[in-house]
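User: Structure please.
Assistant: Input sequence and predicted structure:
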Amino acid sequence: MGSKNGRWLFPVLTALFAVLSSVPFLVPGCGWMMLFAFVPLLLMDREATARGISHFWLWHYSAFLLWNAITTFWVCNATVGGGIFACLANALQMSLVFGLYRLVKKRFCGASKGAALPYIFLAAAWIAWEKWYLVSAQISWPWLVLGNAFARTLPLAQFYEYTGTLGGSLWVWASNLSIFGILSAPWKAYKPKRKTAVLAGVALAIWGPAVWSLCLWGARAGADEPGRTLDIIAFQPNIDPYNKFSALTQQQQNAILEDQMRVAIRGQASSPVLLLAPETFTYDIVPEDVGASVTYRRFVGFLKEHPEANLLFGSSTRTYLPAGPRPSQTARPMYDGRWMETHNSAVLIDSSGRADIYHKSKLVVGVEMMPYPGFFRHIDEWLGGVMGRDIGQDSVSLLHFRVGSTDVPIGCAICYESVYGEHCAEYVRAGAELLTVITNDAWWGDTPGYRQHLSYASLRAIETRRWIARSANTGISAFIDPRGRIVASTPWWEKASLPGTVVLSTARTFFVRVGDIPGRLSILVFLLLLVAAMVSRRR
C-alpha cells in the first residue's frame, strides 16, 4: 500500500481519527475534541497524495468504518444485520464524499498539496450530504452528523438557535481545516504580516463560535422569560419491548399505566396537567373508529374522574381502506379484499373523548419504513414481508392540550424524529409552545444508544428555545430546559413517574424563522465548485 513508513503511519492515523471522532459521542463534555478530530485524516490524505499511494480509499473507508462501529455498535443489539448494514453503508457514504474531494483536488491542483479550494469543497460537500440526509434521503441515518458531537457539551452548542446543528458541522470543518492549514503552511516563506493574519483567521475559526456560544449560555442563565406554565407528569412504565405483547396483555399494560397515573395525580393540585406516556404504548386504536379501542375507553373513563388532565400516549394505529386498486405502495392486503395502512402515532385525549392524532413522519428505515417502495416492495414480498410499512404524514401537525380556557399547542416528536432539527422546528413554525418526545429506547440495551438519543433532544431545545418533556418506556424520561439542560430525569430501566412544570413560549428563534442557512449555503458552494472542477483543465 505504499512505503515502509506508510505501513505504520497510516494505521496510527486511522486509529487516532477513529478515537478522536468517537469520544465526543460517548463521553459527556468532550465535544471540543471534534474540533481537531479530522486532522489525522487530512494529514493521512496529504501523505498519500505526496507519495502517490494507490488504493488510498481503503484507508479512509477503514477510518470511517471504525468511527461508525465505535459509536453506533449498539444498533446490533436490536438487529445484527441492520447494525452491520448501518455501519457499512454510512461509512461508505462518508468515504464517497471524501473520495469525491480527492478527485476534485486533482482537477484543481493536480497532484500537488496546495490550494484551498479542494478543502472548501470537502467541507461544503460533507455538509451538503448531511443536509440531504436530514431532509430528503429515504435511507437516512443522521446519527453522526458532526454538529451532534456537542450534544453533551451544551455550553458550546448555544449558537444553534441561529444556525441549527449544521452550524456545528461547519464549525467542525472550519476548525479542523484551520489547524491542518497551520500544520501544512510554509511558515518560513511567510512575511510577519501574513503570519499574523493567518493566525488571527485560525483563532477566529476555532474560538469565534465558542465565545459566541458561551456568551449566549451566560445570557440565558438563571431564568426563562415570564409566561404561562403547564404542569406535566412523564410516565415510565418500564415494560420490556421484546416481550411487551407476549408476556402482558394490553389490558394488563393499561392497568400498569393507570395505577401509575392514579398515584401520581393524587398529589397533584387541581390545576391543568398533561399526562405523558411513551411511544407505541398500545396497538388497538383505529383512527376512523377510536371509540372501539379498549385502551381509549379505559383512559377516557379515568380522565372523567380527573377532568383537569389530558393524556398523550403513543399507539401503533391502523387505517382500513376499501377494496379496489392498491391505495399506496406499502398498503397491505386484507383477507376480505380491503387494504390496511399502519402508522406509529401520538394520541392526545381528554375527558370529553376528544382525540387528536399525529402520525410519525420520520420513520426508521427497514423497521418502520420501506424506502423507495417501487423497488423494495417486490423484494420484500419475495422475502415474506420483513420490512416495516408504516406510513407517516406529509407534514407535521400539532396536538392540543385543552382544559377549560387553557389551550396549549404541542409538538410531539416520536422517537427517531427528535434527531431531525428542521423537522422539530416545523412544530414551532406551526405554533407549538411546547415540545414533547415519546420514545422506547430499550431495544439497544444498556448501551450508549439511549444516552445519545436523549442528548439529541437537548439540541432540539436549543434550536427552538422550547422546553421539552420526554417520556421513555424504559428510560430516560426527562425535562429539558431551553438551554438544553436536563433539569430532571429518571433512572434507566426503572418504573417511574416524573412530575415537572414547563414554561410555554411563542417566541421563535432565528433558526426557526429562517431555517438551515449553513446547509443551504453548503449545497450552493458544493455545486458551484463541482461544476468548476468539471470544466477546469489540469494544470
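The chain has two domains: 4-221, 229-359+394-506.
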